[in-house]
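hey can u run this one w/ iron/sulfur cluster bound, need the structure tokens asap thx
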Amino acid sequence: MDSWQALKSDCADCRRCSLCGTRHNLVFGVGREDAELMFIGEGPGEQEDLKGEPFVGPAGKLLDDMLRMIDLDRSMVYIANIVKCRPPGNRDPLGVEQEACAEWLGRQIALCSPKLIVCLGRIAAKAIIDPEFRITRDHGVWYDVGGRRCMATYHPSALLRDAGKRPEAFMDLRSLRKEIRAVCDSI
Ligand code: SF4
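ok here u go:
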């Protein structure tokens, strides 16, 4: 029987892919471990790597603002990434890196057992929902994946680069709020 303690211990000094050689910190995940809603991003950036926490810095602040818009905060959700160590220069994580890291996220999802998963950005959406996922076309659509309701929206970093996408992201958040009301008990 798995546990958060066992998972954290197993993952703590992971060296399954080459990203271990350039990381400052492994960024495991943060939040409520029995949350009904989980957010999944692609991987740590520079600030996250330095602090060992997901979504800090400007993208993290925007994620906090997005949560506040639908009456949520970090203590009510769980936040994790596809890969736990920073790809150098913030490049996309390679397929082999995502595969090497998949067990950790799989165990996080199993232990948290969220009713809803929101993928933040293209990389997470391709890994969790559909390899053919296109974020500009498919964001905001709900999918059933392994018995859970999953949706993707733009990554906060993309919204910082292109503010023109924010109205679409706002509509995705409104859809999320509706879905929370429909299926969640504690948020
Ligand atoms: S990215 Fe994942 S698989 Fe690679 S070293 Fe870090 S924790 Fe291990």
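The pocket of iron/sulfur cluster is lined by residues 14-17, 19-20, 26, 83-85, 97, 100-101 (CB under 6 Å). anyway lmk if its weird
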